[in-house]
Design brief:
Layout (H helix, E strand, L loop, with lengths): L1 H13 L11 H139 L5 H48 L13 E7 L5 E8 L4 H14 L10 H8 L1 E6 L7
Antiparallel strand pairs: 1-2, 1-3
Helix pairs in contact: 1-2, 2-3, 3-4
Length: 300
């Protein structure tokens, strides 16, 4: 379009040589002025559009810059959040580790205390056994002295009677004396057997208390246990004190209590002090025996 306009202007201004002196019509001049205004308006419009595009470009750049800044701030906040979360997790880990160490320390202290209690119970059981044996020995000695005194008195009486009737009944007295001696010997043997049986019972009672103590020390009281509950247990033991078998021969009426008593026996596993018993006493009292399990610290 510009080319056409310039061509027209060029033609109008310069024209042919013979027409240079020709007077330009008024309407042509007006047309040239109008075209120049149009060109200026067109240029102004192009400049306005260029400014508008430049403003739009700058506005877009500003928008992108603001958006990038917003994303950077969001990333910064996310990094701060992650760091705070990491610190929080580290604090939680350190706290859990400290709690674990404290629990291990308490467990070690409880174990040490339990071992000390077990040793003390063993010492008390041994002391109780020693006292029981000492009492049985003293009782046996006292009964033996009493028997000897009775024997001495009986012999003295018999001797007086024998001397009184010595002339008349000598032969019969000798026979009677022999019979009485035999009876006395049998009586002494019977008394000694009774004393030994009594001592064996005392010894067995001491070992029974020891077994009961060992079971109670390994017993975990169930929540349903109440005062007055008792279960009768039958134990089969080996001479080494090991538990060969155990079962409830008479229930307490509470299955949890019965099971807790059986578990306590199985935790003990072996009553080592039974190895000190003579085989005869072990076979008589502990190879198979019944124990009434009735701890004294039950709740009412």
């Amino acid at each position: 379009m510009h080319t056409v306009i310039l061509s027209a202007l060029f033609y109008s201004w310069f024209g042919h040589a013979e027409a240079r002196n020709t007077i330009t019509p008024r309407h042509v001049k007006a047309q040239i002025v109008d075209i120049k205004s149009q060109l200026q308006a067109k240029a102004e419009q192009q400049k306005a559009e260029a400014r508008k595009k430049e403003q739009a470009r700058k506005k877009e750049q500003a928008r992108k810059k603001a958006e990038a800044q917003k994303k950077a701030e969001a990333r910064k906040k996310e990094e701060a959040r992650k760091q705070a979360e990491a610190r929080k997790q580290e604090q939680a880990r350190m706290k859990a580790e400290a709690q674990k160490k404290e629990a291990q320390r308490k467990k070690a202290e409880a174990k040490k205390k339990a071992e000390a209690q077990k040793k003390e119970q063993a010492r008390l059981a041994a002391e109780k056994k020693r006292k029981a044996e000492e009492a049985a020995r003293k009782k046996a000695e006292a009964e033996k002295k009493a028997a000897a005194q009775r024997k001495k008195e009986e012999q003295a009486r018999k001797e007086a009677e024998r001397k009184q009737a010595e002339q008349e009944r000598l032969a019969r007295e000798q026979q009677e004396q022999a019979r009485r001696d035999a009876e006395l010997e049998a009586q002494l043997l019977e008394e000694e057997a009774e004393l030994q049986a009594e001592a064996d019972k005392v010894t067995a009672a001491g070992y029974t208390d020891y077994i009961q103590s060992e079971i109670v020390s390994n017993w975990s009281r169930p929540p349903s246990a109440r005062n007055g509950m008792e279960a009768t247990l039958t134990l089969h033991l080996l001479p080494t004190g090991e538990v060969d078998n155990v079962y409830v021969s008479e229930s307490s009426g509470n299955s949890h209590f019965d099971e807790s008593a059986l578990r306590a026996v199985k935790r003990v596993g072996q009553f080592e002090q039974l190895q000190q018993l003579e085989p005869v006493l072990f076979d008589r009292y502990f190879r198979k025996f019944t124990l009434v399990f009735n701890p004294t610290d039950l709740r009412r």
